[in-house]
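Archive entry: two folds, one per protein. Generate the first.
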Amino acid sequence: MKLRTYFKRLLIASLLAPGTLFAQDNKGVAATDSLTLEQVVNYALENTAAMEQALIDEQIGEREIRSSLAGWFPQINANFGGTYNIKRPQQPIGGEIITFGQKYNSNIALQATQNIFDNNLFLATKASNSRKLLLDQQVTDTRINTVVEVSKAYYNVLLTKEQLRILDQNISRQEKQYNDARSRYEVGIVDKTDYQRAAITLANIRSDRKRVEESIKASLAYLKQLMGYPVEQELNLTYNYGRMEQEVQVDTTELLTFDRRIELQQLQTQRDLLKLNTAYNRWSFLPTVSAFANYNLLYFNNELANLYNQHFPNSSVGIQASLPIFQGTRRLQNLKIAQLQEDRLDVQIKDARRAINTEYQTALANYKGDYTEWRTVQQNLVMAEEVYEIIKLQYDEGVKAYVDLIVAETELRTTQLNYYNALYSVLSSKLDLQRALGNIDINR
């Protein structure tokens, strides 16, 4: 009965989420169907090496925070010692030489201390939240970079595949033209230069196709690397090119808000930590106060075999304070260092704001230029197709020479390839602009 219920639930899940069932080959998904951009990015956010390392670094950082706060817990130590007195101390007392101690000594000591006030521990406590925030910001920074780089690699693969499709169409069309030109030559309508030109053009297109086909393999390998995808497993991608064209739009009137940038957020968190460090150094003259408790078991005997037959215990409790009085101006120098570190970070923050503004202006200029180029090539593509069709008809009617047809064919192919290059450029520059604005969506 339980097995039947399990299969029912599995069937319902597959009906409610078609196309999202994946084999558990790795963490996340190992797709059996073609993956969309969202699925590729989500897979990368779970499996890419950069994200795994960032999450491990976050765990390491959390453990370091806990380690720095461990001093607030009681510190318990046990010590064991044994001594063989080769020559015991002697002293004259009342005209006699008295030998002190016994040949064999041993002790077992148990000591517990509890920090009551410690400036270092107070600093660690106050800084723990900022350190955790900085760890989280580092993970966020890695997620942003992963989304951008994986998206670019995804677009590159798909648009290169589209270029391959265009070249296949050109090969098919050119093969027909070659066959037509050869047939015309064989019946004496044209000379052999027409089909020779067709052969040259066909060979060039096939060469271009081979180059693009090989580049797809390299692009797929790079995408797998970014995703953390199994090397030996086939990766299939899918996308709606109409939707891709629609997604090139971005609001270019949006103003730059510096606080959105994770880099500035990280620097601000670092500044908070430096402020705490300066405060710590300013109050470093405060004493360290702790309580302690000791319990010792002492053993003495002249015979090793009888050493542990009897013990002599002693114990004590107390409180101790350590007050630094003069350390050769060390505290003053450390305070000045902490203040200078704050000043240096302030300079870094100002420079980071200028760098972010430059990045934004560059990204905005690149996007506007790439968008204009894409729209221009898009219009040129329509005209190139129209010109080719007209010249093809004129050539078939014997009005145009074959060289005119070759020129039109070359212009059409170049424009088609340029169109997808321009589309990739504008999509990439859009991602760069969104990153510059701090608008990358990482909550997937």
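Generate the second and append.
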Amino acid sequence: MSPSNRAQPGRRPGRRPQGPRRPGERGGTRPADPARLAAFEVLKAVRVDEAYANLVLPHVLGRLGLEGRDAAFATELASGTLRQQGTYDAVLAACIDRPLAKVEAKVLDVLRLGAHQVLSMRVPDHAAISTSVDLTRSKVGQGPAGFVNAVLRKVTRKPLEEWVAEVAPAREKDHDGWATVAFSHPRWVVERLAEAVGRDQVDALLEADNVPPSVTLVARPGRATVAELGGTPTPYSPFGVTMDSGSPAGIAAVAEGRAGVQDEGSQLVAIALAEAALDQPQDRPETWLDLCAGPGGKSALLAALAAQQGALLVANERQPHRAGLVLANLTDRSAGSQVEGVAGVVAGDGTRPPFKDATFDRILVDAPCTGLGALRRRPEARWRRAKADLDVLVGLQRSLLDRAIDLTRPGGVVLYATCSPVLAETKGVVEGVLEGRSDVTLEPILGTVGEVPDSAGPLDGTVQLWPHRHGTDAMFLALLRRVPEGIS
């Protein structure tokens, strides 16, 4: 039976079960439904520990023993609630007689989960309300249960479209305010995305941000083939497939580390660097650097491409624990050694890396960013980032790109990439670095990436991918070439 409305065998409505209490019960009340409990724990981890839902969810599901339909229900409940949190908060605010900031955080989590079931999932109102009350009693206490019941009953009075029409500003008078509620993005994010994609397309982009992406796999060339992975080949990356069903863990090549889960846009970043032409060919094997490598997905694809070209990759990551993840991605699990094409993994600050200038032929700067291009996969990022973060991140991005150019030999290339389309993090960073140096030029990105339609970036020769156009994360790519001093 569906987790949305389980029957309780042997129990009459309104009667308290006899015998010993089960785990999670308080005072003989019904225990929380396991799928809803899993979603609640994910929301708590995101809120308290700043966890990412897509990373913590598998652990919670495993601990609670959820599989199949229960696991799918919990996944949609947690992820969907996070995506549409802004919309639900506007609705809940209209149903509560005090500011949401004064509602206990755990109670607000339950209310958001309940609102998602009522407004966006095919869960009967009575089931959504009763299971939310059970969850409140189990995880918060008896006192707030009546409050949750009363609030969710108010939420059930209207469908989502009518609630949005009531609680959002009028679209024709304040589009960004309306979009903030209708598409559940902070207003500053709506404004920055509109600036990047254009007013005529921002609604389509915001809507795409709220559609869960399909699972995309990469076959690391020389180690796995696309045919091994099944699924549907991706339109732009020759190494990608989109899964039609099932779990990546059930695919041998993924379990063995010969393939991995990777968005097609991220695959194109690695391909663009590997395919870029070099000036002044050297009489030695090429050396490549992934300057900000954690957690290592792009490094793994780069290493495979490097091995095919007789090159060697160095992966650098500032945080030691993330450097460990990179090392794991670059390890042949069957042999227990680094995969072919890897020179080593270094834990170092990318703005002050332990490498000599003019050392590398190709460098990837996959810079830390707001992550506003990956909101489909990490919906909580929209609530975690603030407008003030931009200044800090842009300064770091410019420092990383500037240092990468120093590390590149004349004739070599640097690929600057961000998983954000925000102009301050893309056009602004590249222009700022170009203006401050006479030894670098902006090159057009050719080859596979250049063949992606409707992908022109904000600077000539750059590429900007979009969820609503290409079905990828909103990756930005710019290729810069180091030239002898004074030549540009």
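Annotation attached to the second fold: Residues 4-27 have pLDDT under 50 and may be disordered. The two ends are 68 Å apart (CA to CA).
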